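Progress note, sequence design subtask.
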């Protein structure tokens, strides 16, 4: 059976805005397995980014549980969550979030400082990561001296700095032209082939075409979970499901029942 990395179990998240309550997520369940490649779609305000933040331990649910490697982390303190987050998850954002006063090399090396990686070692790893993304000749450039595509490559390299198991990306091609977006898609495909687990919030059909799973959410709930046939077989220990495929895939993948379910 494929190992579960992150499991969300009936999580809800609401915010108070004055006297009003805004429900961002409503009893949503979802499981991320090792080497999954998942795209999350939904209209603005559907809860996509909140869902990604829950997966990445950037926020805690109002109710429900978040499990990482089988351990419930929902009630942990922020310093404990930060330690898990830093080693387990890498983040890529639409707006890059690079430190403007640091070079490309320094931006990529920055996450390793939290874990006291020696300077020479972190600079060597940062250099190797940037070189692997065709940024070896831009090591000492500031973000302002880079194109949008180059800045996103730096952000991708930074997300890999601590060799996390899971990469979470929020609209990673949203600020890029189509050609540069295709290059980012190629990078993601290569990372998946090398064993990384990727979850991408996106409106980009080019990303979706390459994923194992497509999750569509609306009003804080999953309304459709499309799973490739190959992935459903892998998630179920190499056995193809014939009878009862819907309910058994729901159970294996932690999907809330009652939604529209497809197998590609």
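Output:
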């Amino acid at each position: 059976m494929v190992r579960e990395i992150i499991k969300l179990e009936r999580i809800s998240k609401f915010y108070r805005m004055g006297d009003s309550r805004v429900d961002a997520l409503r009893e949503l369940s979802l499981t991320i397995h090792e080497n999954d490649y998942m795209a999350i779609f939904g209209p603005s305000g559907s809860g996509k980014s909140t869902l990604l933040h829950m997966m990445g331990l950037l926020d805690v649910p109002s109710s429900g549980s978040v499990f990482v490697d089988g351990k419930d982390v929902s009630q942990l303190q922020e310093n404990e969550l930060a330690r898990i987050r830093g080693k387990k998850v890498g983040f890529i954002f639409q707006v890059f979030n690079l430190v403007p006063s640091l070079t490309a090399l320094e931006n990529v090396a920055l996450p390793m400082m939290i874990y006291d990686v020696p300077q020479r070692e972190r600079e060597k790893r940062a250099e190797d990561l940037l070189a692997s993304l065709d940024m070896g000749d831009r090591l000492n450039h500031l973000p302002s001296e880079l194109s949008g595509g180059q800045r996103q490559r730096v952000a991708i390299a930074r997300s890999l700095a601590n060799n996390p198991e899971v990469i979470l990306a929020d609209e990673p091609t949203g600020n890029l032209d189509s050609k540069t977006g295709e290059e980012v898609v190629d990078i993601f495909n290569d990372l998946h082939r090398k064993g990384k687990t990727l979850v991408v919030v996106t409106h980009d059909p080019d990303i979706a075409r390459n994923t194992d799973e497509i999750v569509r959410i609306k009003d804080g709930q999953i309304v459709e979970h499309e799973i490739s046939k190959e992935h459903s077989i892998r998630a179920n220990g190499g056995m193809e499901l014939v009878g009862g495929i819907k309910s058994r895939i729901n159970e294996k993948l932690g999907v809330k029942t009652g939604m529209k379910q497809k197998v590609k």
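The radius of gyration is 19 Å. Work on this subtask will continue into the next period as scheduled.
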